[in-house]
Amino acid sequence: MPELRKDPVVGRWVIISTERSRRPGHFTPEAPNGLGANSPFSEGREDMTPPEVYAERANGGAKDSPGWSVRVVPNKFPALEIEGTLDRRGEGLYDKMNGVGAHEVVIETPDPARQFADLPAEQIQRVLIAWRERMLDLKNDSRLRYALVFKNHGAGAGATLEHSHSQIIATPIIPRMVQEELDGSRRYFELKERPVFSDIIDQETGEGQGRRVVVRSPRYIALAPFAPRFPFETWILPMARRAAYHTIDDPDEMLELAGILKDTLGRLNAALDSPPYNLVLHTAPLAEPDVPYYHWHLEIMPKLTRVAGFEIGSGFYINPTPPEDAAQYLRDVGARA
To answer: Is residue 165 annotated as a catalytic residue, yes or no?
Structure first.
């Protein structure tokens, strides 16, 4: 059973997950694999994964059979395990609990050769719907407080399988980075009586502004944040305030999100020669879908620089590329396409 342990100085929780040590090459660099016939995620190899927990099949069909367009399965080497009780307890001054949670893999296409950014917008829409449906299901488990969706694309971003996929980890605590966003957003709202993300969007799209805007659609905006940690870091936000991603129930709205996500990733690929990247979804906690001060958003972080000793030791990030330059470059790439 994995274990969650709390740092008594800064309050940071750490997952001690012995199950993960069983992964091949866990402590040594490994080249990503899983293309073609070797991919355990390919259509026709459903027996190579744990039983699915969600799938979309246009013409129906049996569970764990071919014919799917998107498929979600438990991770074979989970960071947290769904069985058991939390059993919160102390060990002297230390706090810990059982590593209860969920760890799932969203297989984004049956075709192992297709990359996420190259999928049709309608297929990306199916992936986005799968994220939502799994979050709604995990929300029913009272032990779970948060579901983090993330995607590691490329070996440099931590992917060990090339077959396009994302992951969902549901935890019994709110991740610290998300909690910091929630706390900061709440303080801003208490001071100014309006959401900080709404003010960011208003400023970035106001008259004479737009220097950090990459692309817009009627309901979404992609922009370079004012203080990015990484070169070409890009966020996608809804123009209207919506705290929780899993409350999106309009298919057209989801298709529009798929379109701007595909556009943004295409610009990054064209500008940076298809870099590895991490994508994360920050959203409201599962049981608090409508906190009035928060916006869910996607954060896309190309892996162009390394996080080294100064960043790890200080919490400061050194970014050599101003966001205004990055956004301009991404806009120009779109204009040339």
So the answer is: yes
